[in-house]
């Protein structure tokens, strides 16, 4: 061992070993970057084979040959082979990340071609997993360089925690911020928390203001403040003003980037001004018109500017009836307006009509997708489970809450059955059939519930037509109740040869389906009055009702008639 | 009665009476339009009070005063009052529909301001329902004139069938097509089927080709063919070529409207060409570059054109790495690309690279919303129930299928219980507790199932990481199984004072939660292999498994140990 002969070397070696052992690839790379290639070479020689390969994968591609020059031929051969094996053939050697990224720092759309020309997500995932398994982390870096940040985010989310950290470490410095933007909350927070503060600050500086605000909002307050402190005064003020809005409001969605002009200029002047800018912010389909106090006056569509002679004044093209959005407006309302009116961008104003910024369709698409995801995950009590590979312990704890709530309702149903122990003891067939009554009610009720929740969400169900819907649902409950009551009764008679039990189960099913219709309409209505999201808790309450009513009706009738 | 004195009058009166009685407002209006005001007046006098008011509400506003001139003062007063009462104060008298509609027949975005300045959806709905109840249909026409087609569609969907037909009849002729575009499938088809063919054809002619294709695809083939025949040859060929693509493919989403130019022209030439067009198709953020055979070459962004000097050639601005979409590509893939890359429009090409049209973000937003809606509704077996107020009979029939499928699984579970009748007869406490075991398994399983379905939908779950997820879910099942097994066991012991039952239920719950994790991962995987949508049928199969395993484990263990 040679590491004692030079004090200067000791610290990097220990720090590097520590970084490699703890999978802190980013730190390992930073340490390696600060060292002279000769030192890196001698350091590599002191490591055991596994660690050496791991360290090798953290060395910047541009320095590889310098380091190799200082190594023994045997090691040279081994490490060169390490770099070249594997991916070379599998990853198409088209655009590099740098080329693909918008060179002028604008739209991420520019890279649209990348992953369409490449492999399927499935193949990419397999590649990453293989690289992780064999410790060939360089292959991941190579793959990442060729992918769009959104795709990289998708790949990272497909990995379990430790593998994710390893792959994350291979991401190019300059692209970290962009990828963070595309990650789901839970994943983003966990990765950001594990990063060195310096790296996080670097990543944050690459983000657009609205994305930076999103990131800060999700980090622990201390970390968020530290990022804020690294910004210059103007940037900080800008971000702080955005931070003051609710995440789910227009203010939280808006981006300060936009082009605003005065109404008294000519189209030609506007075009000259635009040429000075060289490029426009993405999604610029309209320019905003403001007065001298920056108060919103109207819009001019870019396509109008393209199709009008330069002598025309902006006033002639201006549309003053295009309503701006208020900064406090909830994001769901805005999403619906974008959808209904096929919008690309809208201006955002404060209470006094001052132009604050704009909301663009790409962020609205994210809102729509998130809403949909939230309601689907929410129905299974998973609204906080955005990370498919969250640690077992964290997931278990979150899901336990939902199971616990459900247990209460299950015990309630069991309690109802318990009331009729004496009856069950005498007619055991009842115990066999009773889950059928409860289950049919639960299914019918959840159909009504789903319909009502959708109606409330789209605003199509209001106080004016609830009664009509209720009558319709009860009508359906009656028809289906009669149909399935007869079918179940017939089957029960065939099975147990007992007409009375058939009659009892028919009556219980009909009754339960009618109650299910009533509950399916009323539960979400009442929850909305109490300001509880019916999509989250509606189905638990509903099945409690249909279980209790189902068991009570069936066993109660049986007790009255059979005993 | 005077209606016999003039043969010429008899037919309109009968036809009108018939139309009013059958709520065919559109036909009533057409009949009234063809008549001289004096004839209309004498006709009104022959009708009884109710019918007279109903007929009055079908008279065009512009002819009201002419008709009034021929009426007795008493009737004049009555009918004038009828017109003025009610809405006047409630509906803000801002923009009329005509003003709000894009005068150049382009984007519907122009009317964005309308319903934002007006009442809330809830108030509008109440207004419509009141107007329907009091027979003051004119108020509905007044309200509709001030609303965006999307909002009108929303209101129509909030009405039960007969009221919907009445309100539909009050819609301005020229706007029918636009509103049809925004309606959900079921509602659209039913309203279109009820329309006179002439009106339907008129409405269809106002639609853009892609919307027209959507409409034709949803109508009965005969009706669709009749609409096609009314188009001229060029239009028909265009629509027919669009009809050849699958509704859920790029071809089905695309619109032929786009601007394509050759690469060898200068920016100044392009600008002059655009000025000739006067306006561009909505959502034109890029122009497509084609060769002389209309083969796709690349794109030029509109914002580049705006910021470049006129002498520049298109070649310098052209981006050749922007991948077009293939016409056969499924719409879900396209939606993901738009989302990931923040796109506004993409070109669509055929297999030989010929430019066919483009897909714009507004249609993609609809795809995303529909996908989300389909999966939420699908989970309750409601994937065909797009009309909240479909007739009771139609809804009952559709939902009965789902209830029937569920009944099969319920009988399967009952069958398992039936195996243990002898055991239940001896220990009735088992019957009380058994639903708890099944229910806990069902809830835990549906959590895993939801997570896996989402992972498959986003492409984050592939063959590479399924095993990892399975292990994680089994880990969670183990932890939560142990926790809730102990809790339930303790409660069972407290309730029945029997330690053996406590032990049995604990073991059954642990076992069922582990099976639930396994089933939650495997069921959607297998379904996908079999090309069944796991979002539709997954939960039925899953609860069958957890019910059967739950009952079998609990009652089976009890039989082994207690007897």
Automatic annotation (TrEMBL), chains A, B:
GO terms for cellular component: plasma membrane. It comes from the Bacteria. Keywords: CBS domain, Cell membrane, Magnesium, Membrane, Metal-binding, Transmembrane, Transmembrane helix, Transport. It is found in: Cell membrane; Membrane. Residues 254-316, 318-374 form the CBS domain. PROSITE patterns: CBS. Gene3D superfamilies: CBS-domain (3.10.580.10), MgtE N-terminal domain-like (1.25.60.10), SLC41 divalent cation transporters, integral membrane domain (1.10.357.20). The chain crosses the membrane at residues 400-420, 426-453, 474-495, 501-523, 535-562. It is a multi-pass membrane protein. Its main location: membrane. Residues 88-121 are annotated as: Disordered. GO terms for molecular function: magnesium ion transmembrane transporter activity; metal ion binding. Homodimer. Belongs to the SLC41A transporter family. This is Magnesium transporter MgtE. It comes from Ectothiorhodospira mobilis.
């Amino acid at each position: 061992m040679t590491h004692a002969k030079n004090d200067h070397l000791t610290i990097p070696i220990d720090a590097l070993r520590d970084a490699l052992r703890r999978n802190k690839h980013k730190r390992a790379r930073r340490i390696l970057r600060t060292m002279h290639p000769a030192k890196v070479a001698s350091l590599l020689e002191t490591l055991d084979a596994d660690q050496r390969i791991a360290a090798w994968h953290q060395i910047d591609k541009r320095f590889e040959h310098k380091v190799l020059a200082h190594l023994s031929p045997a090691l040279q051969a081994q490490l060169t082979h390490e770099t070249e094996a594997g991916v070379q053939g599998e990853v198409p050697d088209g655009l590099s990340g740098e080329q693909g990224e918008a060179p002028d720092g604008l739209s991420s759309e520019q890279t649209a071609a990348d992953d369409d020309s490449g492999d399927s997500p499935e193949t990419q995932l397999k590649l990453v997993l293989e690289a992780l398994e064999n410790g060939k982390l360089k292959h991941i870096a190579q793959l990442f360089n060729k992918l769009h940040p959104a795709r990289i985010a998708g790949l990272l989310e497909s990995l379990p925690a430790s593998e994710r950290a390893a792959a994350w470490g291979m991401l190019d410095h300059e692209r970290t911020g962009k990828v963070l933007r595309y990650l789901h909350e839970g994943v983003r927070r966990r990765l950001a928390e594990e990063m060195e503060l310096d790296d996080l600050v670097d990543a944050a500086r690459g983000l657009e203001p609205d994305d930076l605000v999103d990131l800060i909002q999700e980090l622990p307050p201390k970390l968020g403040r530290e990022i804020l402190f690294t910004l210059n005064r103007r940037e900080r003020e800008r971000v702080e003003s955005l931070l003051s809005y609710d995440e789910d409001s227009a203010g939280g969605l808006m981006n300060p980037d936009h082009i605003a002009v005065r109404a008294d200029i000519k189209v030609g002047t506007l075009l000259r001004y635009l040429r000075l800018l060289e490029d426009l912010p993405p999604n610029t389909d309209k320019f905003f018109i403001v007065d001298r106090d920056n108060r919103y006056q109207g819009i001019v569509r870019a396509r109008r500017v393209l199709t009008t002679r330069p002598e025309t004044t902006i006033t002639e093209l201006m549309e003053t009836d295009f309503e701006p959005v208020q900064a406090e407006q909830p994001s769901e309302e805005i999403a619906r307006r974008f959808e209904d009116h096929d919008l690309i961008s809208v201006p955002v104003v404060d209470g006094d009509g001052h132009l604050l910024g704009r909301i663009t369709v790409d962020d609205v698409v994210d809102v729509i997708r998130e809403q949909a995801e939230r309601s689907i995950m929410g129905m299974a009590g998973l609204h906080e489970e955005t990370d498919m590979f969250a640690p077992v312990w964290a997931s278990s704890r979150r899901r336990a809450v939902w199971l616990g709530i459900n247990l209460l309702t299950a015990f309630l149903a069991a309690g109802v059955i318990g009331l009729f122990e004496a009856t069950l003891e005498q007619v055991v067939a009842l115990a066999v059939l009773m889950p059928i009554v409860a289950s049919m009610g639960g299914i019918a009720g959840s159909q009504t519930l789903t319909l009502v929740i959708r109606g409330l969400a789209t605003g199509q169900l209001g106080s004016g037509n609830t009664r009509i819907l209720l009558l319709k649902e009860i009508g359906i409950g009656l028809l289906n109740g009669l149909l399935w009551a007869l079918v179940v009764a017939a089957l029960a008679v065939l099975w147990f040869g007992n007409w009375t039990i058939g009659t009892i189960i028919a009556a219980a099913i009909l009754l339960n389906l009618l109650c299910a219709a009533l509950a399916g309409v009323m539960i979400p209505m009442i929850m909305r009055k109490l300001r509880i999201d019916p999509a989250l808790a509606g189905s638990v309450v509903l099945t409690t009702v249909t279980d209790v009513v189902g068991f009570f009706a069936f066993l109660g009738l049986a007790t009255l008639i059979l005993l």
